[in-house]
Design a protein that fits this description.
globular, about 450 residues, single chain, 13 helices, about 35% strand, alpha+beta, six-stranded antiparallel beta sheet
Amino acid sequence: MKSAPKVTINFMQRLPPEILTKILLYLDASSLFCIGHVNKLFNLLANNNAMWHRMNMLAFGKSKKWKPKNKDDTLKKLSTVEIQDKPEGYWRRLYFRTMAGYNENKWKKELQAINPYTGLPNQTEWVLRNLHVTWELTVTDKLGSQGTFEQRNLYFSESSVTVCWSGGNWPTFHQLSTLQLHGVMRVALQCPNLKKPGWRSLIVKHDIDDISKNSQIIGTDKLIKLMLLSSGIIIGIWRDQWSIAFVMFSLHFNKLVEKSLLGSSLCPYATPVDRLPFDDVDPDYGLHGYTLHILLHNTVTQIMSGHFPKLFCRKDHIQDGHIQLNAINRGNLSQHTPLSGKITLPWKTDALHGTVENCCMTSLTLLDEYQNPFWCVSSPVCMVFADDNPVSYDYEGEHFLIKYQDAEGRLHMELVWLEEQRQFFLICLSVFVAVDKVNKHFGRDY
């Protein structure tokens, strides 16, 4: 006779839910989160509002000494209407949100020390790395399908970070509908092989239909072409087709930690507006005392760094709705600056890599007379031949332009290539700031 097959009895699942809940009350947050991935029953028990309300009270209750007298007493309290009235998952989300921002006061203190050279917090990169902040890109196509991509590479400079995503199943460029960039901080739980919970803060959301109207191809190599969508966004597209190879975002350090942590998944962080003191004595208030810090860099190296204080504009030089701040004048040879390398933008995916000539990143920080960030830009730019080579008695070489423009201002750079030295020289650098921005910031009417 054949022996009857052994029947495996799951004694845990035969226990009443009340007993299981009592057992789960002994677990910490890491264990409770992990056990919720075992099966449907434990997922239901480990994710109810009562359990996570208790976690919140233990970790962040008004009295740090609060302790339940016994488990039965806790169960009675957790069954109250006030706790269970909240939407499903409310207390769990609140716990991880609070955990993610629990050291907010600590990292804000770290950001108080300002670098006098850049006008930005000294420890921005250190804080971002120490908090293990990452950035996720959520892509939606025109059919409504959505996918989220985790960053593959990071490149830090003095005043910005370039984030790159590649690999995975991207829609074609023409199928894109929206791009959403979120800052993410995961809670440090002991959960191997599980994606840890955390908090997502929306930084920017772009509708492709709107921004693609002004999109342009700024560079190509043998494999890809670079599509500049708007300030800070590049999409690498495989040549002779419209499939996506990678996406790059360039993020300026100004308020980047706050933007990456203090928004919600749907609403970005609202940057507070600093009120400047009203000045009715200085007739040129808002036209002088500016400081410019500017970088040219790529995903590998720094090409140029410049610091230009005491910039100003006379009233009679305000033209076309902009004030003009000249940092490097073409006629002043002592101001001309050599670049430490060529203008290039290296890229790589999981399988391939390359370099696009005549493209790079610029990070611009314009400080007002109080040394507060006034206009901050971090964006890809391209270098083009100057249409009309100016007559120059100082340099023999081809002239090039690098330009950038948005609603708040524009950047104008002129370079010359010296063949003998095999080097670029920056011979003109001007920043144009919208008068409307100046008037709003300083309370003027220029």
